Amino acid sequence: MKALFVAAAMLMGFAAPAVAQTTTLKYAFVNPMSSHFGAAATTFKEFVEKESAGKIKVDIFPGGALGGEREIVESLQLGTVDMAMTGTSIMGNFVPEVLLYDVPFLFKDTRQARAVLDGQIGKDVLAKFEDKDLVGLGYGENGFKMLTNNKKPVLKPEDLVGMTIRVQENEIHIAAFKQLGARPTPIAWPELYAALQQGVVDGQDNPISNVLSAKFFQVQKYGTLLRHVFAPTVITMSSATWGKLSDADKAIVQAAVAKAVATQRAAVDEYETSGLAKLKEGGMQIVETVDTAAFVEKLAPANEIFAKRFGQDKFDAIRAMN
């Protein structure tokens, strides 16, 4: 009789329904949750969890909780972070082809920049991520950069001579500001506010979206709408994580990325529309009209070097897009 009970129990155990395995994705970025990065991450999380019926969970780590952007990308390669949204400027240290986007005055407007990123040039660059144990899933954006500083209004290249400007750890940015006569100083994003507050550097360049969300207007007196670089973001996944997903789950993730990108771009559009007034309210003096031609002329020697590196054909193709 005892044997029968044991056998019955075993049969009941084997007949128990299987529990669906849950995958949890660690999603990291350095900007605050209240930023356009946070808006994109929230959209991604909500879509993935709904469409997967809870099979895929997303844990969001904002504000540099898992390190600066370089550390985050290294963690992606190691597989200790599953996915992230970073600026392409730092990603260029891992995937050099992405530095094309950082060439000064390459894009004339947002529409053109988005067309390039979403087109064949952008797809070809994302394909290069595979060689670095990364999967490039899509481009969001920060918008066009402005320049801020605590020294004086910047209207022409000469105004930058001798000024210490924080840059990302990016050879294109460093070369460009050296050409303009400034002293570029690489500083990680999580350390930037304090560096500006303490006068470690005189200024920095970032899109309105980042200047507002990081509250740089509290520690910077002057702002210039230089619009010298369009700053994309990129949503990247660890190759190790991507390889563990089923085809159906990959499709959900890709669809979620598209939704996240749309959310982020809409947020940046809003920053571009209302941001200047908010910066002025915060006490920043804004230079809205600059001698763009003078900056382009000053940067011509550096841009010739950049054209040789990335290919004049790409420059021509981008500039031919209307």
From TrEMBL:
Signal peptide (UniProt feature, chain positions): 1-20
Transport listed as a keyword: no
Pfam families recorded: DctP
Keywords: Signal
InterPro entries: DctP_fam (IPR018389), TRAP_DctP (IPR004682), TRAP_DctP_sf (IPR038404)
PANTHER family with a match to the protein in the record: DICARBOXYLATE-BINDING PERIPLASMIC PROTEIN, PTHR33376
Name used for this protein in its record: TRAP transporter substrate-binding protein DctP
Taxon lineage: Bacteria, Pseudomonadati, Pseudomonadota, Alphaproteobacteria, Hyphomicrobiales
